[in-house]
């Protein structure tokens, strides 16, 4: 992954492409969970007489083992809708070619690196 990023930055520098970095603040809260997960209520959120109630999660939360996978699958579904192609050797690298326009998106945990040559403001 680090090698892919270095190569893309070198290409972007050589061809004078635009480079942006995005930090997705709520990334791990946007994915849906495939399996059934039950959790105890957090301390301080229980009512008297309801201390043994549990919650069934429908979306991922922070510190959940499945949170990264859920976010990655959600990102993958959305980016495919914009005709991006996932790289065979680096599954966190997406590319799109349209005529003379080139765009690369690199997903690294909750950060996205955007590299493009044809920016329409």
UniProtKB/TrEMBL annotation:
InterPro entries: RVT_2 (IPR013103). Residues 3-120 form the Reverse transcriptase Ty1/copia-type domain. It comes from the Eukaryota. This is Reverse transcriptase Ty1/copia-type domain-containing protein. It comes from Sesamum angolense.
């Amino acid at each position: 992954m680090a090698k892919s990023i270095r190569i893309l930055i070198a290409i972007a520098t050589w061809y004078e492409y635009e480079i942006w970095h995005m930090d997705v603040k709520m990334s791990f809260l946007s994915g849906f969970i495939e399996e059934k997960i039950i959790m105890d209520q957090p301390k301080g959120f229980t009512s008297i007489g309801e201390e043994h109630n549990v919650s069934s999660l429908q979306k991922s939360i922070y510190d959940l083992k499945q949170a990264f996978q859920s976010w990655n699958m959600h990102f993958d579904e959305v980016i495919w809708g914009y005709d991006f192609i996932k790289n065979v050797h680096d599954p966190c690298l997406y590319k799109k070619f349209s005529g003379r326009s080139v765009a690369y998106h690199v997903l690294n945990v909750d950060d996205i690196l955007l590299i493009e040559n044809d920016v329409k403001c």
